[in-house]
Amino acid sequence: MSSPEKWTHPGPDGPPATAAAPTAEQVIAGLKATDEGGADLVQLLTPEGERVQHPDFDIDISAEELRGLYRDMVLVRRADREANALQRKGELGLWVPLLGQEAAQIGAGRALRPMDMAFPSYREHGVAWCRGIQPTEILGMFRGTDNGSWDPVEHRFHPYTIVIGNQVLNAAGYAMGQKFDGKVGDDADSEATMCFFGDGATSQGDVHEGFVWAAVYDAPLVFFCQNNQWAISEPTERQSRLPLYQRARGYGFPGIRVDGNDVLATLAVSRWALEECRQGNGPILIEAFTYRMDAHTTSDDPSRYRLSDELELWKLKDPIERVKVYLVKQQWADHAFFDSVEADAEQLAIGMRDYCVNLPDPPAERMFSQVYAEANPVLDAQRDEFLAYHAGFAGGEH
Amino acid sequence: MAAPTMDPLTSATPAAKQTLTVAKAINNGLRAAMEADPKVLVMGEDVGKLGGVFRITDGLQKDFGEQRVLDTPLSESGIIGTAVGLAIRGYRPVCEIQFEGFIFPGFDQIVSQVAKLHFRTQGRIKLPMVIRVPFGGGIGAVEHHSESPESYFAHTAGLKVVACSNPADAYWMIQQAIDSDDPVLFFEPKRRYYEKGEVDTTAAPAPLYSSRVLRTGTDATLVTYGPMVRTSLDAAAAAEEEGRSLEVVDLRSLSPLDLGPVYESVRRTGRLVVVTEAPSESSISSEIAAKVQQECFYSLEAPVLRVTGFDTPYPPSKLEEDFLPDLDRVLHAVDRSLAW
Ligand SMILES: Cc1ncc(C[n+]2csc(CCOP(=O)(O)OP(=O)(O)O)c2C)c(N)n1
Ligand SMILES: [Mg+2]
């Protein structure tokens, strides 16, 4: 089959214009490139745990660093499973699983430096982990006690954004600010921003506008799209004819597709992209080709719209297993190491459970607090009326 | 719908009287409309194969095909903007917005094009489209899944805005909205989706843009719509046990407002409490209060009172019981009105 490039951009000598519309099969083949994401996929560690070379990207990784990445992935997966279980037990209203996307998120998250900024959507628990946010700090949002309790300024990790695509423009603006502040260039204190969104999000106007703005202002922004193949029940071909990373070209910046289940590749490509941005060569789009192994959220039933065959195929490309195989093969880790990681994961889960079930409900007046930065006597009056009512009610009358 | 067919033999649903949930009633109504008119399309995120996250469009793609039930790209501006084009081309699109909090990427299209094209073209272009919006709270959801944004739309000239509160209305109103030559925002009380009621598919429905007295009473009037209708009826039932007789009016149409039955009621009871989940400032409840004091000034025994969501962002779900009007808050307001 001709490459998607050919049929989407018929040149003067190319096929006649009538051939420009691809068939549905061509679109799907182009988007998925059937096996590992296609010829352009950057991969450094195969699903079987073989180290492979890539002409443009490489990574010199120490045993210790790789053990760290492995530990990160095991811990965030354990935290994810624990939160999922807490939802099943009724302790959380909802959970948004990251299962299967650990390598995409840990590779990207560990490429960030402390002074870089990150804008997540709502599934980036792994990136949050890398920004020093404890899984417990994410639980309140899903238990309904708060809207995310971490300090976004301190952690340089924006609150989760649920409205699809909104954060992309916000990230573009933040990155413009980094540039305007002279934080782009050779200096050691240069900064970049990374913005996370999904395959479905690429259809939103905000995302396209974010591409335009970041490009026009040469903003130091890495767009990190986790293509997990699904937007709830809709496969990627409902969103695009073209492999997503190729969209970047239309906006005038590079787009790279990386094996999102290969933490070495996501780390290498993210490091490169962030450094390019810090140097003033942004923006850059990374498409991390991965798979949503669980339901969209705990409210979703994927058996209504996708085949389990697909899931079985992706199980063979597990992001954690391949690192384990490689660590063992290199003799970079022994039983004691793997056991200690398991023990840490268990501790983390126990801590989450304890924290979650003991999380107090917020006081009712919290509704009225921090709606505005400045005084608002009208709202204050409403609050006082509410509190008086509440107090009377507590006293047994209404 | 095509005009609701009164002939049980040609009616879309086999039995004339059925007990249905609100969700199923809308589903049946959509099905009837699609059967009656091949130009009716359903479009939105996850509405096809999945049948929508609330299953309101369940089975429609299977039966009507992918050309009539479109799993669209993830873009609300796209859903609404292309529906405008389709409507110009002679289709009657029914757009689903997955949750009310996600309508805002499409707000520009709604306010700038949907609302104004008929006026701008002096009627040469009609936009017979429906935008279905599950709205309101009480389901323990995360942010953007529990809001009540209807006032933005009622505030916009050129849009019609309705809200159903029970299965029978849901079944008929969705068909009437599709049949309307004006663009209609169709608000669905998501926390009442699974409440059941009788739907008579042969009874002639009330006109779409009309309010209805659901319970008669003499001491005070409650005016409400959507999810708060159930709350208000429960409050009226509780009040009756305390010897108070409350009248309950379901507005059903938020724009245009059909306040005739409200005026008539207030002239008898002398007292009005407006109940909405939506915050009160610059809202439908403000509008009702203003109009009622103007029309019923000499009949009022007490100022018009409002029981509403607060003028804050919708809170985290552990606080939503405090945010949302409940039976106690409604009765508290009734007490205040009666004690005036
Ligand atoms: C503006 C908007 N529309 C609709 C939704 C409902 N919704 C939540 S997640 C989702 C799918 C997102 O898919 P994708 O961007 O691929 O991210 P993923 O969930 O797969 O990580 C949809 C439609 C939303 N949150 N925001
Ligand atoms: Mg996705």
Automatic annotation (TrEMBL), chain B:
Transmembrane residue ranges: none
Domain Transketolase-like pyrimidine-binding: 20-195
CDD domains: TPP_PYR_E1-PDHc-beta_like
UniProtKB keywords: Oxidoreductase, Pyruvate, Thiamine pyrophosphate
Domain of life where this protein originates: Bacteria
EC number: 1.2.4.1
GO molecular function term, any single one: pyruvate dehydrogenase (acetyl-transferring) activity
Entry-linked InterPro entries: THDP-binding, Transketo_C/PFOR_II, Transketolase-like_Pyr-bd, Transketolase_C
Cofactor(s) needed for function: thiamine diphosphate
One protein family per Pfam: Transketolase_C
Protein name according to UniProt: Pyruvate dehydrogenase E1 component beta subunit
Organism: Saccharothrix tamanrassetensis
